TrEMBL record:
Gene3D superfamilies, A to Z: Dihydrodipicolinate Reductase, domain 2 (3.30.360.10), NAD(P)-binding Rossmann-like Domain (3.40.50.720)
Annotated source species: Shinella sumterensis
Protein name: Gfo/Idh/MocA family oxidoreductase
Domain GFO/IDH/MocA-like oxidoreductase: 129-250
Gene Ontology terms, MF aspect: nucleotide binding
Protein backbone atom coordinates (compact mmCIF):
# COMPACT_ATOMS: atom_id res chain seq x y z
CA UNK A 1 0.00 0.00 0.00
CA UNK A 2 1.24 3.47 -0.91
CA UNK A 3 0.78 5.92 1.97
CA UNK A 4 0.12 9.50 0.91
CA UNK A 5 0.53 12.95 2.37
CA UNK A 6 -1.43 15.85 0.94
CA UNK A 7 0.47 19.10 0.51
CA UNK A 8 -2.50 21.45 0.46
CA UNK A 9 -6.02 20.93 1.83
CA UNK A 10 -7.47 21.59 -1.60
CA UNK A 11 -10.80 21.30 -3.37
CA UNK A 12 -9.45 18.95 -6.04
CA UNK A 13 -8.04 16.63 -3.38
CA UNK A 14 -11.41 16.62 -1.62
CA UNK A 15 -13.51 16.13 -4.76
CA UNK A 16 -11.34 13.68 -6.69
CA UNK A 17 -7.93 12.68 -5.39
CA UNK A 18 -8.58 11.25 -1.92
CA UNK A 19 -11.17 8.88 -3.34
CA UNK A 20 -8.94 7.92 -6.27
CA UNK A 21 -5.97 7.20 -4.00
CA UNK A 22 -8.07 4.93 -1.80
CA UNK A 23 -9.80 3.24 -4.74
CA UNK A 24 -6.44 2.21 -6.20
CA UNK A 25 -4.96 0.62 -3.10
CA UNK A 26 -3.41 3.66 -1.42
CA UNK A 27 -4.22 5.52 1.76
CA UNK A 28 -4.08 9.17 2.80
CA UNK A 29 -2.39 9.42 6.20
CA UNK A 30 -1.60 13.12 6.57
CA UNK A 31 -2.54 16.55 5.24
CA UNK A 32 -0.61 19.80 5.43
CA UNK A 33 -2.34 23.16 5.63
CA UNK A 34 -0.84 26.47 6.72
CA UNK A 35 -4.07 27.02 8.67
CA UNK A 36 -4.14 24.59 11.60
CA UNK A 37 -7.89 24.83 12.14
CA UNK A 38 -8.65 24.30 8.45
CA UNK A 39 -6.23 21.37 8.29
CA UNK A 40 -7.71 19.65 11.32
CA UNK A 41 -11.27 20.00 10.05
CA UNK A 42 -10.21 18.79 6.58
CA UNK A 43 -8.56 15.74 8.13
CA UNK A 44 -11.59 14.99 10.31
CA UNK A 45 -14.00 15.39 7.38
CA UNK A 46 -12.04 12.94 5.22
CA UNK A 47 -10.86 10.36 7.70
CA UNK A 48 -7.20 11.42 7.60
CA UNK A 49 -5.27 10.60 10.76
CA UNK A 50 -2.87 13.54 10.89
CA UNK A 51 -2.96 17.26 10.08
CA UNK A 52 0.25 19.31 10.15
CA UNK A 53 1.14 22.91 9.36
CA UNK A 54 4.78 22.37 8.38
CA UNK A 55 6.06 20.99 5.09
CA UNK A 56 9.05 19.49 6.91
CA UNK A 57 6.76 17.66 9.32
CA UNK A 58 4.88 16.10 6.43
CA UNK A 59 7.74 15.08 4.14
CA UNK A 60 9.91 13.78 6.99
CA UNK A 61 7.15 11.55 8.29
CA UNK A 62 8.38 7.94 7.80
CA UNK A 63 4.76 6.82 7.46
CA UNK A 64 4.48 8.66 4.11
CA UNK A 65 5.66 7.22 0.79
CA UNK A 66 4.29 9.78 -1.67
CA UNK A 67 2.94 13.33 -1.70
CA UNK A 68 0.26 15.04 -3.76
CA UNK A 69 0.96 18.75 -4.29
CA UNK A 70 -2.13 20.87 -4.98
CA UNK A 71 -1.13 24.25 -3.58
CA UNK A 72 -1.04 27.40 -5.72
CA UNK A 73 1.39 27.24 -8.61
CA UNK A 74 4.16 29.47 -7.25
CA UNK A 75 4.66 27.05 -4.34
CA UNK A 76 5.08 23.85 -6.36
CA UNK A 77 8.81 24.04 -7.03
CA UNK A 78 10.04 24.48 -3.48
CA UNK A 79 7.61 21.91 -2.12
CA UNK A 80 8.62 19.35 -4.75
CA UNK A 81 12.33 19.91 -4.12
CA UNK A 82 11.89 19.37 -0.38
CA UNK A 83 9.77 16.25 -0.98
CA UNK A 84 12.29 14.78 -3.42
CA UNK A 85 15.14 15.39 -0.99
CA UNK A 86 13.13 13.53 1.64
CA UNK A 87 12.77 10.56 -0.73
CA UNK A 88 9.03 10.92 -1.36
CA UNK A 89 7.38 10.16 -4.69
CA UNK A 90 5.56 13.21 -6.08
CA UNK A 91 2.32 13.77 -7.96
CA UNK A 92 2.06 17.50 -8.68
CA UNK A 93 -0.79 19.54 -10.05
CA UNK A 94 -0.33 21.37 -13.31
CA UNK A 95 1.36 23.60 -14.18
CA UNK A 96 4.44 22.12 -12.56
CA UNK A 97 5.88 25.55 -11.84
CA UNK A 98 5.89 29.18 -12.91
CA UNK A 99 8.98 28.92 -15.12
CA UNK A 100 10.67 26.29 -17.25
CA UNK A 101 13.85 26.52 -15.19
CA UNK A 102 11.86 25.70 -12.04
CA UNK A 103 10.01 22.82 -13.71
CA UNK A 104 13.25 21.35 -15.03
CA UNK A 105 14.77 21.65 -11.55
CA UNK A 106 11.86 19.63 -10.14
CA UNK A 107 12.29 16.86 -12.70
CA UNK A 108 16.04 16.73 -12.12
CA UNK A 109 15.64 16.63 -8.33
CA UNK A 110 13.30 13.64 -8.62
CA UNK A 111 15.77 11.84 -10.89
CA UNK A 112 18.64 12.56 -8.51
CA UNK A 113 16.60 11.24 -5.57
CA UNK A 114 15.37 8.17 -7.45
CA UNK A 115 11.70 9.01 -6.90
CA UNK A 116 8.76 9.11 -9.29
CA UNK A 117 7.54 12.57 -10.33
CA UNK A 118 4.28 12.89 -12.26
CA UNK A 119 2.08 15.75 -13.46
CA UNK A 120 -1.65 15.50 -12.74
CA UNK A 121 -2.87 15.96 -16.32
CA UNK A 122 -6.10 14.04 -15.94
CA UNK A 123 -7.51 14.39 -19.46
CA UNK A 124 -5.07 11.98 -21.11
CA UNK A 125 -6.62 9.31 -18.87
CA UNK A 126 -10.07 9.74 -20.43
CA UNK A 127 -11.42 6.82 -22.44
CA UNK A 128 -12.48 9.29 -25.12
CA UNK A 129 -8.99 10.67 -25.69
CA UNK A 130 -7.41 7.23 -25.53
CA UNK A 131 -9.85 6.01 -28.17
CA UNK A 132 -8.98 8.99 -30.40
CA UNK A 133 -5.25 8.36 -30.01
CA UNK A 134 -5.73 4.67 -30.84
CA UNK A 135 -7.85 5.47 -33.91
CA UNK A 136 -5.27 7.93 -35.25
CA UNK A 137 -2.43 5.44 -34.70
CA UNK A 138 -4.47 2.81 -36.56
CA UNK A 139 -4.76 5.15 -39.56
CA UNK A 140 -8.53 5.46 -39.37
CA UNK A 141 -8.51 9.15 -40.36
CA UNK A 142 -5.50 8.95 -42.66
CA UNK A 143 -2.93 11.70 -42.14
CA UNK A 144 -4.02 14.15 -39.39
CA UNK A 145 -4.24 17.72 -40.71
CA UNK A 146 -6.08 19.87 -38.17
CA UNK A 147 -7.58 19.84 -34.70
CA UNK A 148 -9.97 21.99 -32.70
CA UNK A 149 -10.33 22.17 -28.93
CA UNK A 150 -13.39 23.68 -27.23
CA UNK A 151 -12.51 24.16 -23.57
CA UNK A 152 -14.35 27.33 -22.63
CA UNK A 153 -16.31 26.67 -19.45
CA UNK A 154 -17.69 28.58 -16.48
CA UNK A 155 -15.46 28.73 -13.43
CA UNK A 156 -17.79 28.22 -10.45
CA UNK A 157 -17.57 30.66 -7.53
CA UNK A 158 -15.97 28.16 -5.14
CA UNK A 159 -13.02 27.77 -7.55
CA UNK A 160 -12.55 31.41 -8.51
CA UNK A 161 -10.38 33.03 -5.84
CA UNK A 162 -6.68 33.08 -6.75
CA UNK A 163 -7.32 31.91 -10.33
CA UNK A 164 -8.87 35.31 -11.04
CA UNK A 165 -7.02 37.50 -8.55
CA UNK A 166 -3.35 36.51 -8.27
CA UNK A 167 -1.05 36.70 -11.28
CA UNK A 168 1.88 35.94 -9.00
CA UNK A 169 0.28 32.56 -8.22
CA UNK A 170 -0.15 31.70 -11.87
CA UNK A 171 -3.76 32.78 -12.10
CA UNK A 172 -5.56 33.24 -15.40
CA UNK A 173 -7.03 30.83 -17.90
CA UNK A 174 -3.83 29.98 -19.79
CA UNK A 175 -1.92 28.27 -16.98
CA UNK A 176 -5.16 26.75 -15.68
CA UNK A 177 -6.82 25.40 -18.85
CA UNK A 178 -4.61 25.91 -21.92
CA UNK A 179 -1.93 23.70 -20.41
CA UNK A 180 -4.51 20.89 -20.35
CA UNK A 181 -5.25 21.46 -24.05
CA UNK A 182 -1.54 21.26 -24.82
CA UNK A 183 -1.10 17.99 -22.95
CA UNK A 184 -4.24 16.43 -24.40
CA UNK A 185 -3.28 17.36 -27.96
CA UNK A 186 0.27 16.06 -27.46
CA UNK A 187 -1.20 12.77 -26.22
CA UNK A 188 -3.90 12.36 -28.87
CA UNK A 189 -1.72 13.45 -31.81
CA UNK A 190 1.47 11.82 -30.50
CA UNK A 191 3.37 14.94 -31.59
CA UNK A 192 4.89 17.98 -29.92
CA UNK A 193 3.79 21.62 -30.40
CA UNK A 194 6.40 23.88 -31.97
CA UNK A 195 4.71 27.28 -32.35
CA UNK A 196 1.85 29.31 -30.84
CA UNK A 197 -0.20 32.38 -31.68
CA UNK A 198 -2.98 33.70 -29.46
CA UNK A 199 -5.30 36.52 -28.41
CA UNK A 200 -6.46 36.78 -24.81
CA UNK A 201 -9.60 38.41 -23.43
CA UNK A 202 -10.73 39.99 -20.18
CA UNK A 203 -14.44 39.30 -20.10
CA UNK A 204 -15.19 40.70 -16.66
CA UNK A 205 -14.26 37.85 -14.33
CA UNK A 206 -10.49 38.20 -14.15
CA UNK A 207 -9.10 40.72 -11.68
CA UNK A 208 -5.75 42.54 -11.83
CA UNK A 209 -5.70 42.31 -15.62
CA UNK A 210 -5.71 38.50 -15.68
CA UNK A 211 -7.06 36.91 -18.85
CA UNK A 212 -10.26 34.93 -18.38
CA UNK A 213 -10.46 33.68 -21.97
CA UNK A 214 -8.04 32.96 -24.80
CA UNK A 215 -8.17 31.80 -28.41
CA UNK A 216 -5.21 30.68 -30.42
CA UNK A 217 -3.52 28.22 -32.72
CA UNK A 218 -0.76 25.69 -32.11
CA UNK A 219 1.39 24.21 -34.84
CA UNK A 220 2.66 20.69 -34.21
CA UNK A 221 5.80 18.95 -35.35
CA UNK A 222 3.80 16.57 -37.53
CA UNK A 223 2.22 19.50 -39.39
CA UNK A 224 -1.14 19.54 -37.60
CA UNK A 225 -2.57 23.00 -36.92
CA UNK A 226 -4.82 23.10 -33.84
CA UNK A 227 -7.28 25.80 -32.80
CA UNK A 228 -8.18 26.24 -29.14
CA UNK A 229 -10.72 28.30 -27.20
CA UNK A 230 -10.39 28.36 -23.43
CA UNK A 231 -12.41 30.39 -20.96
CA UNK A 232 -13.77 30.82 -17.46
CA UNK A 233 -16.71 32.90 -18.66
CA UNK A 234 -18.97 30.71 -20.81
CA UNK A 235 -21.86 29.23 -18.82
CA UNK A 236 -23.59 27.35 -21.62
CA UNK A 237 -20.87 26.06 -23.95
CA UNK A 238 -20.05 22.40 -24.37
CA UNK A 239 -16.53 21.10 -24.58
CA UNK A 240 -15.04 19.11 -27.39
CA UNK A 241 -12.00 17.93 -29.31
CA UNK A 242 -11.96 17.33 -33.05
CA UNK A 243 -9.18 15.89 -35.20
CA UNK A 244 -9.55 16.02 -38.99
CA UNK A 245 -7.48 13.93 -41.38
CA UNK A 246 -7.19 13.10 -45.05
CA UNK A 247 -9.52 10.08 -44.75
CA UNK A 248 -11.79 10.92 -41.84
CA UNK A 249 -12.63 13.04 -38.80
CA UNK A 250 -12.88 12.26 -35.11
CA UNK A 251 -15.51 14.29 -33.25
CA UNK A 252 -15.27 14.21 -29.45
CA UNK A 253 -18.09 15.87 -27.54
CA UNK A 254 -18.17 16.81 -23.85
CA UNK A 255 -14.70 15.32 -23.44
CA UNK A 256 -12.66 18.13 -21.81
CA UNK A 257 -13.97 17.31 -18.36
CA UNK A 258 -12.99 15.66 -15.09
CA UNK A 259 -15.91 13.27 -15.38
CA UNK A 260 -15.83 9.92 -17.21
CA UNK A 261 -18.25 10.99 -19.89
CA UNK A 262 -18.49 12.13 -23.49
CA UNK A 263 -18.56 10.46 -26.89
CA UNK A 264 -16.34 10.09 -29.94
CA UNK A 265 -17.72 9.76 -33.46
CA UNK A 266 -15.66 8.72 -36.49
CA UNK A 267 -16.82 10.23 -39.76
CA UNK A 268 -15.39 8.73 -42.95
CA UNK A 269 -16.43 7.51 -46.39
CA UNK A 270 -18.58 4.80 -44.78
CA UNK A 271 -20.61 7.26 -42.71
CA UNK A 272 -20.62 7.89 -38.95
CA UNK A 273 -19.55 5.40 -36.30
CA UNK A 274 -19.43 5.88 -32.53
CA UNK A 275 -16.17 4.52 -31.11
CA UNK A 276 -16.57 2.03 -28.24
CA UNK A 277 -15.42 3.53 -24.94
CA UNK A 278 -14.37 1.81 -21.73
CA UNK A 279 -15.27 4.69 -19.42
CA UNK A 280 -13.47 4.84 -16.07
CA UNK A 281 -12.65 7.43 -13.43
CA UNK A 282 -9.82 9.55 -14.87
CA UNK A 283 -8.06 10.07 -11.57
CA UNK A 284 -8.25 6.41 -10.61
CA UNK A 285 -6.64 5.58 -13.95
CA UNK A 286 -3.87 8.08 -13.17
CA UNK A 287 -3.33 6.75 -9.64
CA UNK A 288 -3.22 3.15 -10.84
CA UNK A 289 -0.41 4.07 -13.24
CA UNK A 290 1.38 6.09 -10.55
CA UNK A 291 1.24 3.28 -8.00
CA UNK A 292 2.53 0.86 -10.65
CA UNK A 293 5.39 3.22 -11.50
CA UNK A 294 6.41 3.36 -7.83
CA UNK A 295 6.55 -0.44 -7.91
CA UNK A 296 8.80 -0.30 -10.96
CA UNK A 297 6.13 -1.23 -13.49
CA UNK A 298 5.89 1.32 -16.28
CA UNK A 299 5.61 5.07 -15.87
CA UNK A 300 2.96 7.59 -14.78
CA UNK A 301 0.23 8.64 -17.21
CA UNK A 302 1.82 12.10 -17.43
CA UNK A 303 5.48 12.37 -16.45
CA UNK A 304 7.41 15.38 -15.24
CA UNK A 305 8.69 15.82 -18.80
CA UNK A 306 5.08 15.93 -20.01
CA UNK A 307 4.48 18.66 -17.45
CA UNK A 308 7.43 20.64 -18.81
CA UNK A 309 5.99 20.41 -22.34
CA UNK A 310 2.55 21.68 -21.29
CA UNK A 311 4.08 24.50 -19.25
CA UNK A 312 6.31 25.52 -22.18
CA UNK A 313 3.24 25.63 -24.39
CA UNK A 314 1.24 27.68 -21.89
CA UNK A 315 4.07 30.17 -21.45
CA UNK A 316 4.41 30.49 -25.24
CA UNK A 317 0.67 31.12 -25.57
CA UNK A 318 0.84 33.80 -22.86
CA UNK A 319 3.79 35.48 -24.58
CA UNK A 320 2.05 35.36 -27.97
CA UNK A 321 -1.07 36.96 -26.46
CA UNK A 322 1.02 39.73 -24.89
CA UNK A 323 3.19 40.49 -27.90
CA UNK A 324 0.92 39.72 -30.83
CA UNK A 325 3.30 37.46 -32.73
CA UNK A 326 4.11 33.80 -33.24
CA UNK A 327 6.20 32.27 -30.46
CA UNK A 328 8.35 29.16 -30.75
CA UNK A 329 7.78 26.40 -28.19
CA UNK A 330 11.07 25.00 -26.90
CA UNK A 331 10.97 23.31 -23.48
CA UNK A 332 14.65 22.48 -23.49
CA UNK A 333 14.25 19.02 -22.00
Amino acid sequence: MTRWGLIGASTIAREWMIGAIRATGGDVVSVMSSNAERGRKYADDHGIAKAVTSLDDLVNDPAIDAVYISTTNELHRDQALVAAKAGKHILCEKPLAMSLDDARAMVQAAKDAGVVLATNHHLRNAATHRAMRKAIKAGRIGTPLAARVFHAVYLPPHLQGWRLEKPEAGGGVILDITVHDADTLRFVLDSDPVEAIALSQSGGMGKAGLEDAVMGVLRFQNGVVAQFHDGFTTKFAETGLEVHGTEGSLIGRNVMTQRATGSVTLRDADGEHDLPLDQANLYETALSAFHAAIAGNGKPSATGEDGIWSLATGLAVAEAARNGGAVKIAPGI
